[in-house]
Amino acid sequence: MGIAREVFGDALPIAERYAEFLADAGVERGLIGPREADRLWERHLINCAVVAEAVPENARVVDIGSGAGLPGLVLAIVRPDLSITLLEPLLRRTNFLNEAVELLGLRNVEVRRGRAEEVVKEFSMDVATARAVAPLERLARWALPLLRPGGELLAMKGERAAAEIEEAAPVLKRFGVRTTELLQVGQGKVEPPTTLVRVVAERAPRPAKGSKKRSS
């Protein structure tokens, strides 16, 4: 808990309430595996909280496929300057997220039920986050249209992060992304450090070859 106190600071009591809610309702509703309850802090909460190191101040953030709120709710707890939208298509998960937001008294969070492709015309965010949602090739297709030019996708990834970047190269090229890089955050706070794929958006994608523009 010493590391948790360092990472969350004055927000630690809120993080503790969230951890209790995850271990109880999160497990009961199948959002967190039963075996995860005993390792919520190092494997989930701190692992997600250190993503804040890569998020600019006062950013508008969309957490894609938010699930149990990882990392979106954790970022909202540790960084009250952020405006967070938790985007989740499943009703039972959005119900859980709404309950968590109310329980924790978070005023910087909006829960939105839907898929990325359904809200693309409404969003122009600074940052998109995602954890265990999809390979980068698919995730980029969903996330990049939600970002303003110069906005960033911060995807939490594991050992295959570099391979996913290579596999996603054609999609990233079509979107004309500015940069793609691997980052490690949480050095000395979580082991291993959290790996992020950071993709900086440039512009809207070119239509795929042979595709037709659909009328609205």
UniProtKB/TrEMBL annotation:
Keywords: Cytoplasm, Methyltransferase, rRNA processing, S-adenosyl-L-methionine, Transferase. Its EC number is 2.1.1.-. It is an enzyme of class 2 (transferase). It is found in: Cytoplasm. It holds the Pfam family GidB. S-adenosyl-L-methionine binds at residues 65, 70, 116-117, 131. GO terms for cellular component: cytosol. It comes from the Bacteria. GO terms for molecular function: rRNA (guanine-N7-)-methyltransferase activity. InterPro entries: rRNA_ssu_MeTfrase_G, SAM-dependent_MTases_sf. Belongs to the methyltransferase superfamily. RNA methyltransferase RsmG family. Specifically methylates the N7 position of a guanine in 16S rRNA. This is Ribosomal RNA small subunit methyltransferase G.
